[in-house]
Amino acid sequence: MRIFVTGGTGTIGTPVIAELLSSGHTVLALARSDASAQAIKHAGAEVLRGDLSDLDVLRVGAAQADGVISLAFGRDYSTAEALTRGIAQESAALATLGAALVGSDRPLVAASGTPWIPGRASTETDPLPTGGPVGARSQSIAALFELAERGVRSASVRLPRTVHNEGRGGFAGLLVDASRRLGVAGYPGDGRQRWPAVHALDVAVLFRLVLESAPAGTSWHAVADEGDAVKDIASVVGRRLGLPVEQVPDDTFGPFGPIFAMDQPASSAHTREILGWQPTHPSLLEDLEHIHP
């Protein structure tokens, strides 16, 4: 298949493109800069120049493709307002891509997040939260699933709080950045709350599997580690950076503070059973050993 990919040069997008190409698909990827275009060409994919806000460009990309994987998201997470703008941009992009595929039975696979369920690990059948800093993303996914009744094989890959690769990525990456800035490996709350995690190379395989075979209107969990205690994560970061490990206020992490403080383990048992997905790459705690002072 010829697949149109947005966000193809990020932590997730880079291995997704490589996985698609190695599995015999061809890829057309959105590039918003010369550097992104060069990286996409170097990977062996075709380039479509434009930004996620260029809705006409997104229509062109979808029209040329047998399927779409939507990974792009705004890069400014510094304030709640910036996060809201990023969610709105993502929502408009998904709506545009979906409209371009109506009646075609072509797949549209979008990224979302695993939900948090008090007292247990969330599963693929649990609804996404509509409240909190990123609750508005749930409305975009709900609209995506409505397209299943209009001839779009829409599906969602729910990502855990940390998608990592060589010690970088996701909430753990933000924690590392904050630790360098503060001079302390800080964690919110009492540190017992759990974060699910997965290696980016394992995520790439799941996106391909969902693209190729998932039924319309379905959600899948890209979770390898059901939940690592935040204090354990901070302890590895502190040891690798040579910093003390201490509790810090939630607002240390800006708009993500409330999420960082939540206990939010997640399961991928259903995804593994139905799609045959089996993570094979290092766990988060193992991968954080790649951090350099």
Short description:
By secondary structure, the protein is of the alpha/beta class.
Report what the structure shows:
This is 3-beta hydroxysteroid dehydrogenase. GO terms for molecular function: aldehyde dehydrogenase (NAD+) activity. It comes from Deinococcus ruber. Helix 6 crosses helix 8. The protein is globular. It has two domains: 188 residues, NAD(P)-binding Rossmann-like Domain (Rossmann fold, 3-Layer(aba) Sandwich), CATH 3.40.50.720; 85 residues, UDP-galactose 4-epimerase, domain 1 (Alpha-Beta Complex). The longest helix is centred in the first third of the chain and has 22 residues. The protein has eleven helices and twelve strands. 40% of the residues lie in helices and 20% in strands. The protein is of the alpha/beta class and 293 residues long. A seven-stranded parallel sheet has the order 3-2-1-4-5-6-10, with helices on both faces. Strands 7-9-11 form a three-stranded mixed sheet. Strand 5, helix 5 and strand 6 form a beta-alpha-beta unit.
